Amino acid sequence: MFRILPHRLLTALAVLAIVSACSDDGSPAARAGPVDEGAVAADLPLGKGFDFYVLALSWSPAYCQIEGSNANSRQCAEDRDLGFVVHGLWPQFETGYPEFCPTRQPDRVPADLGGDYLDIVPSMGLIGHQWRKHGTCSGLSQQDYFRVLRAAHARTQVPSAFALENLPAEIDALEAEDAFIAANPGMEREGIAVACQRGLLREVRICLTPSLSFRNCPEVDRNGCRIDNLEVPEPG
For residues 178 and 219, what is the distance between their CA atoms, to the nearest angstrom? Predict the structure, then answer.
């Protein structure tokens, strides 16, 4: 599946048997194993006014490489070594999606709230933008929206193929989907899409019900990347 680039091949062979769990800060030591259904709390707040969520997981090294000097300096600092991070949790319709919805909630996310999520969303700027563009359309308060965002992140397992010892590498878009499907029982081909840019794997988008069960989303799936040999750069 992963085609490890030559200068990392010997290292990867030496640690092939190691399966690492992804850390809470989104580092590339990826989580593996069956989905823990208990990760979704029984009292999870349920949004309204939309059909489903898309959990967007951004491959941070690709973002940093593509954006260059325009990238967020906190996210792309050399000492952070981030892998997949939460780009956002996006309310969707079966066709299209809402954005920047009117709400009685404040536009600004307080630092004491947003700071609790910097381990999975890498900057306060991104946290604030995601709330204003997407969270306001969830029918939830700020506190509840970010609580659901964390639950969605915890509910989704990152394949061990994305562990640091396997990087940098190349992978086909559909192979990346297959890896996530294998790591997440209940996920299907039409419930996930890869986003690519400049030959890089940029993002993985996973469709979830308001109660965070995996579900199909034909429009999101149709818009996914189908390119072979996508580069997966390593952090740093």
Answer: 19
